[in-house]
Amino acid sequence: VRFCGMVVVFAEEGSVEKHITSLFGKHKWQAGLIIGAVTEKRHLAVSLIPTPPEDVENPGTFLTLDKDWVKMHAEQVRQSLPGGLDIIGSYLFSSSKVDYATKLRQMTYSVACSNTNAETAQFGEADTQERLALHVCADTKKRTCRTFHVGDPKASPRPAEWKDKAFVHQWQTVRCGIDVSAIVNLPMARSDTPQLEAEVQQALQSEYTRIAAGAVAWADAEHVSLPASQLPDDAVCECTMYMPVGPPEGGSAPKSTTATVNTTLELSGSLSAVAVVPPASTRGAGERALKADIVRSLQARCLSTCRGWDEDRSEDIAAAGPVQRQIARLPLRVSAPLIGPILLSDYVDSDTGPEGLGEAVERFQEIFGITVDQASLQQDEKFEEGETNDDGLRMAGAVAPATPSTKRVAGPSSAVKATEQAGDSNSSMLVALTVLVVAIVVGFMLMKS
Q1: pLDDT higher than 80, residue 118
Q2: How many CB atoms within 10 Å of residue 238?
Q3: Beta bridge partners of residue 284, listed in sequence order
Q4: Residues 15, 339: contact at Cβ < 8 Å?
Q5: Which residues contact 202 (CB under 8 A, 6 or more apart)?
Q6: What's the N-to-C CA distance of the chain in angstroms?
Q7: Which end of the chain is more exposed for a tag (fewer CB within 10 A), N or C?
């Protein structure tokens, strides 16, 4: 919201103000991330996430905080956020006696550079370049908030007004299921994890584009999107995501960046998607938030698969010689509560059992600084027994989300065409039956005469 050119930020008093208050008397300094939503009309700060010091035993001062460390933490946080939320800035709690402006500006730009995810450009709101920089003085308790246009490294900061307000508990949750399938050509030597991650991300670009361009939620009988209408007035809105069949218009099959490929990795399954939106949001806003979550979640799962790839297994595959087809199980999504309807996500292998959930609890503690009871984790997905494909390979078990599944359609009017075809078939049968009855009657009359 802007009044006389000044940005007004509404901060959730149940989490943001509570976090700030807890810092006084306990910490000399703390730096971290502001998560929330930025739109043309309003800036909403939902929670503050502290960036852990590189050396816990010897944290030093905020002046020694490395920008790459902040960037890496931002990447981890963003992967866990639901659709509709993002990192909208950074904060610093410190004494005003030490120059903090340079470090806070550096942090804000580092966080912006961490946003390499595909969903920002495709599904983000109009102004995705404006980020918040909040300083809380440890001596006077004064809040100083400014905004930076991170698209311009030379941009001057602009003042922003910081206001406390309770609003998160009024937000709505939007959920759906999504079917994904991506083929990744892997290089013969896969000891270089970044190279493998680059291969996966390149292969997924086609899937991202297909989701952005063709997926439709809250469709009517003709599968026509209704973006301007308001979301149902429910705390949790379930929907079906309709996906187009085949590659996106004008798209082509992804090409491998490597000269030698000996393994084709197939990533597939039915995944759950979840997003949060402010009350009175349109269906179009809910759809964009869901798409953003799908892309973000798919990216996080695939990167997790790459990083967990066993090197010994890779060497065995490489030594086998001919090109092999491998089917990878995408990790399961588990969620932990943050505040109100907002859930954070982590991804665990399906075969790890309780041990995997314990590791998820540890990651929530390390990345978000929150204590999560393992019993409170929500699991919306489970692996079911797979089926044998045409090549005789055992398909990885599909993830069964606890929400409506995706439906694939050839075009916007597929449902109508299917109905018309069914109607034409019924009409033909009726005509044939009528002709048969007439023939029998005529024949009977001729025999009688």
Answers
A1: no
A2: 14
A3: none
A4: yes
A5: 254, 256, 257
A6: 92
A7: C
Which pLDDT score is estimated for 234? 79
Type of residue numbered 403: T
Structural contact between residues 196 and 309, judged by C-beta atoms closer than 8 angstroms: yes
Percent of the chain with pLDDT over 90: 33
- What count of Cα atoms within 13 Å lies in the side-chain half-sphere of residue 357? 13
CB contact set of 231 (below 8 Å; sequence gap of 6+): 172, 174, 237, 277, 280, 281, 282, 283, 285, 286
Secondary structure of 176-236 in HEC code, one letter for each residue:
EEEEEEEEEEEECCCCCHHHHHHHHHHHHHHHHHHHHHHCEECCCCCCCCCCCCECCCCCE
Pairing label, strands 86-94, 43-50: unpaired
Answer whether 38's CB lies under 8 Å from 130's CB.
Answer: yes
Q: How far apart are CA 303 and CA 299, in angstroms?
A: 6
* d(C-alpha 48, C-alpha 87), whole Å: 10
Q: Within the chain, how many helices (H) and strands (E) appear?
A: 9, 18
Q: 369 is written with which tokens?
A: 């600084």
Burial 16-31 (b: 16+ CB within 10 A, else e): bbebbeebeeeeebbb
User: Which residues are registered as beta bridge partners of 383?
Assistant: 399
Q: Do 130 and 148 form a contact (C-beta atoms < 8 A)?
A: yes
| Tens digit of each residue's pLDDT (9 = 90 or more) over 120-149 | 444 444 446 889 999 999 999 999 999 998
Strand order in the sheet with 332-339: 342-348, 332-339, 378-379
Beta strands in 117-157 (DSSP E): 130-137, 143-149
Beta bridge partners of 181: 268
pLDDT one-digit tens code per residue, 191-245: 556 667 777 777 777 777 777 776 777 544 444 456 667 787 778 888 877 766 6
Task: State the Cα–Cα distance between residues 356 and 277, nearest whole angstrom.
Answer: 30
